[in-house]
């Protein structure tokens, strides 16, 4: 009997070490998700707002998920160190739920990847047609930020603005200009010279989709662990 106990102790010690290491890795992934959520809110805020038409919850979901995983990672380390059966059972249940969420998120992301890009294209087109050049409008600010940061003008090019109410009155927005100080209002309304003053990148949708995909890849990579 004593020899069996001596054989069991090293095994239990090894298992506890592995579980603590896994809990630490789990905690790190929570920290990464939290950081990605904060980064997404600060740097991708305008893009997400346009995708969701003012109801952008993805960064908050990442922040909430990351915080929850951080707390449960610490809980797992504590449960392992204390060897508490009920705490270990609760931790195992949480890991199982995370595994289910991972499967659902992976399938949903794969199935709806094209719909997300189409939704962004549709919402951006609506935002361009509703554009009034108001700094008080979140949508107008999002459109301006997109064009400035991605060096684009319109959905495909600057001619998209010619079909809008704003474009027919004021021309293209100043956020389309290479150098705003070198873009007089008369030039923005002049269809013969405006092409030389504004950005000419082919598609704004592809650039935003690539940045959104980068964030999703980080999200799925974290859940894989």
Give the SSE layout.
Elements: H1 2-43, H2 45-52, H3 58-82, H4 85-111, H5 113-130, H6 138-150, H7 165-170, H8 185-189, H9 204-224
Helix pairs in contact: 1-3, 1-9, 2-6, 3-4, 4-9
Keywords:
transmembrane; disordered C terminus; Tetraspanin_animals; mainly alpha; single chain; 9 helices; transmembrane helix; 0% strand; elongated; Tetraspanin_EC2_sf; 225 residues; 2 domains; Tetraspanin
Structure description:
The protein has two domains: 2-114 and 210-224, no CATH class; 134-208, no CATH class. α1 runs antiparallel to α3. The chain has helices at residues 2-43, 45-52, 58-82, 85-111, 113-130, 138-150, 165-170, 185-189, 204-224. By secondary structure, it is mainly alpha-helical. The protein starts with a helix and ends with a helix.
